[in-house]
Amino acid sequence: MNPPQDLRPAPRPPESWKVEIWLRIRRHFALKVVGTTAFTWLFFIGYFHLLRQPAGPVAVMPLTALDRLIPFQPQALVAYFSLWLYVGFAPGLQLTFRELLVYGLWVGGLCLTGLAFFFLWPTQIPPMAVPPTDFPGFAILQGVDAAGNACPSMHVAIAIFTALWIEHILRHAGAPILLRLANALWFAAIAWSTLAIKQHVVLDVVAGALLGVAFALPSLRWRPRPAANPAGWSGYHEASLPAGRFGGRARRS
User: Fold this and answer.
1) What is the Cα–Cα distance from 68 to 12, expressed in whole angstroms?
2) Which CA distances in Å does 58 have to 28, 50, 112, 132, 230?
3) Strand, helix or coil at 14?
């Protein structure tokens, strides 16, 4: 009589999340870099066209009490500009070409929806008394990105979409809580920066967050199902697989 087999999944090797994350990063790396760069430029073409040639009268967003309490903080410009590095992490962590393509379709839908808002309802922030500053980068920002295309804040919409995707991937990979907390703090810093440098008002940020969540949640639900990973069990490289119960490679789940 054969002894009963233990059908429980084999435990994850220590720090195997590093193997999975590295595998995700290096898959289709060149395509991810080129695709993200091209996608960003295409978005900016539409963004700046609507910024300089609004389709109708431009509504001014109202200030809230919180807007009046938040002081001008030019140092927050660093976090504001860091979005363009941050947005590359979520597509960079997609494992397969199909996953990358579907991710691109979802984030493309998010960006097109934001542009549709700017076309149908042009908005701008109200004039605010911003103290003069010589902080590096402000002259460029004020010369390129005017006060229009305010609501919803696409800075916040893209940031929260990215944050939720990164959190999902890190949690699935078993990454340490400190890394996941760093992801949340980075998003929070970007969202705060839009208010601290007076590029947006609170209502813009709230609308942007809602728009980003409205696309992030369904994108995490309706996406390619994880198939048998040709590179290894549960995202690990095959060399990292533990031995099976009776010798040989463990079966992939």
Assistant:
1) 50
2) 42, 11, 19, 26, 53
3) coil
C-alpha distances (whole Å) from 91 to each of 50, 125, 149, 155, 161 are 26, 31, 25, 17, 11
Q: Is 129 helix (H, G, I), strand (E, B) or coil?
A: coil
DSSP state of 249: B
Residue with tokens 């929070």, as numbered in its chain: 188
Tell me the per-residue pLDDT of 42-96, one tens digit each, with 9 for 90 and over: 999 999 999 889 989 999 999 999 999 999 999 999 999 999 999 999 999 999 9
Report the b/e string of 76-105 with b at 16+ CB within 10 A.
bbebbbebeebbbbbbbbbbbeebbebbbe
Q: Is 59 helix (H, G, I), strand (E, B) or coil?
A: strand
Q: What angle do CA 27, 181, 156 make, to 5 degrees?
A: 80
SS3 165: helix
Give the pair of three-digit tokens for residue 109. Answer: 């839908």
